[in-house]
Amino acid sequence: MKQESGTLNTTNRAKLYQLVLFPMNNGATNVYYILTMNFIAYYANGVLGLLLMFATTMVTVMRLFDAVTDPIIGALIDRTSTKFGKFRPYMVLGNGIMILSSLLLYFGTRVISADMVWLRYVCFVLFYALYVVGYTFQTACTRSGQTCLTNDPNQRPLFTVFNTVASLIGMGLVQFLAPVLSEKLGGYNSAAFFNFMIPLAIGVSAALTLLAVIGIWEKDRPEFFGVGGTQEKVQLKEYVAILKANKELQRLMVAGAGCKLAFSIATNMTVLCMLYGAMMGNYGGLYLPMMIVGYVFSAPFFLLTVRTSQKLGQKASLVRYTRIALVMYVGVLALLLLWKPGAEVFRLSLMPLNIYTVLFVLFFGVGYGAYYATADMPIPMVADCSDYETYRSGRYIPGIMGTLFSLVDKLVSSLGSTIVGMAVAMIGISTLPDGNTPYADGMHIVVLVLFCVIPMLAWIATLIAMKGYTLTGARMKEIQAVNAVRKDAIGKGMSLSEAMEKWQTIEQVPKEYQ
């Protein structure tokens, strides 16, 4: 590839607006994700009158279905080549399906008479499944599309920052509005709550999707696909062989799944209702301030993670700040262990402020900030694994690589709602707690495990998995150089097999490509 100046350019770089806009695709899907993970069980149980265990278990079942559909859709993406691109069709189609399924799921099911409750169960499952297909269509493009957006090691860490910003626009909006609206509209179990939230989610998600399509428009072309611009045809049966050979992806799967499980449980609305409402007695006064504390502490960590990633690689950044989160949550766990019913000295209070709250804000803020800044880091690291697969085998299969990662990610994170539902049921509560639910025996230990212990175990698993991960910053620069010289040679008529054989190490690559 030649630049207009005549100097050799071996790096595919994105424009700033592309780096900012394409991650909005993740924000678009996260609007629906947070609604589904945190509130659909409230809707099924409180509005439709479906059994609590059915409502919470269906979140897990559909998350599993989502995982199963991932590899199929990943293969479809890799085989797709249209005038509208490879990724944009699935982004638009996926969002359209989610709009339709949300209207059917949250409004259509209510039309069914309570006398035909069996039909409510059936339609709930069918419409939920339709939503999952649309969600998978669109979310698969976030991980796979970034491979053609940029392969610059200095730009990919920025994807994490803009991806988080996009998530805050979508997911953060729901998290911020939900507790405020629930108080005015009758709680999370009320139909009025969903009457407002679903149309809002549809509008926000559609707008973010449009921005994401604009962001990837110029890059969604064959010249930015792998080393040869060809469409790979990989059979589903080959997935196991690909995963077995790409050990870097295996390790990243463990790290990503651990991070997602920690996030899905520790931020589950039911867990937060028990912590801030039932235990501390002030859900309305604590939930939003503590959410803001987490976001405020996250800001400096975003800057630190980008700088560390650009200097030392994304692995070093993920490991460093996951360790900080783990250490800080030891303090959070210790503070919550001190809590006792009726003991005011060990109760969170902002008005008046006490030393217990100051310490909690410090440990929780730093821990959550460090974790939240790295929570989405495995997403751009999937692009590194995809480029490594191109280097290793010559195949450009970002759809398969992204959905293989999300397969395990979703299988593990799907346990979140079921674990929470089972924990609540074990202490004898038949309806999911909201901000007004009083304290019940057993809630203390449930909150300790769900809010602290499980996330800490997940972070430990992440650190162990990253020990053997070899795609450091320096290693990725070598891989990109080898891929670049192969791509130029193939463009000049050399076969893929010849290029693969001729250039295998950085020492064999001409200096102008390094």
Order of helices and strands: HHHHHHHHHHHHHHHHHHH
Rough shape?
globular
CATH topology of the largest domain: Growth Hormone, Chain: A
Q: How many individual helices? A: 19
Mean pLDDT: 85
Largest sheet: none
Second rung of CATH, namely the architecture of the largest domain: Up-down Bundle
Class from secondary-structure proportions: mainly alpha
Please provide the count of β strands. Answer: 0
The CATH superfamily of the largest domain is MFS general substrate transporter like domains
How many domain units?
2
Helix content: over 70%
Q: Give the radius of gyration.
A: 23 Å
Cα separation of the termini: 14 Å
% residues in beta strands: under 5%
Name the CATH class of the largest domain: Mainly Alpha
Low-confidence stretches: 1-7
Protein name: Sugar transporter
Organism: Petralouisia muris
Keywords: Sugar transport, Transport
